Amino acid sequence: MNKTQLIEAVTDKTGSRATAAVAVEAVLDTIVRSVVAGETVSITGFGALLPQDRKARTARNPQTGDTVKVAATRVVKFRPGTRFQNLLTGRTPMPDSGNCIKKAPKTPRP
Q1: In sequence order, what are the beta bridge partners of 59?
Q2: What pLDDT, in 10s, does the model give residues 27-66?
């Protein structure tokens, strides 16, 4: 799914393509700005985006066998939430409708 398809999917729920586009753009912009600033973005039920620094290292070119220096860099790591992971592995069935990452309501005590 690309951004245009995401906007279309949100349009189905909001009814307005303009509103959906603004909402998707705002959410993505906020997430990117937070991760670039060094913050972890954690969305309950979905997962967490964690910025990580990788140290400079020495690697090997697989074609020639020569040693190559790899510069230090920053990467983003995604850690899926428990509910998302359970849906992905099939431990929890995908609901037919509604929000699939929302927690089930608590059962009342007898």
Answers
A1: 68
A2: 999 999 999 999 999 998 899 999 999 999 999 999 999 9
Q: Which token pair is 104?
A: 């089930």
Beta strand 73-80 with 57-60 is: unpaired
What CA–CA distance (Å, rounded) separates 29 from 98? 26
Q: Which residue has the tokens 């279309």?
A: 8
Query: Hey, what amino acid is at 71?
Result: A
pTM for the full model?
Answer: 0.77
Rounded-to-integer distance, Cα 35 and Cα 39, Å = 5
Structure tokens at 44: 């309950």
And the tokens for 86? 């359970």
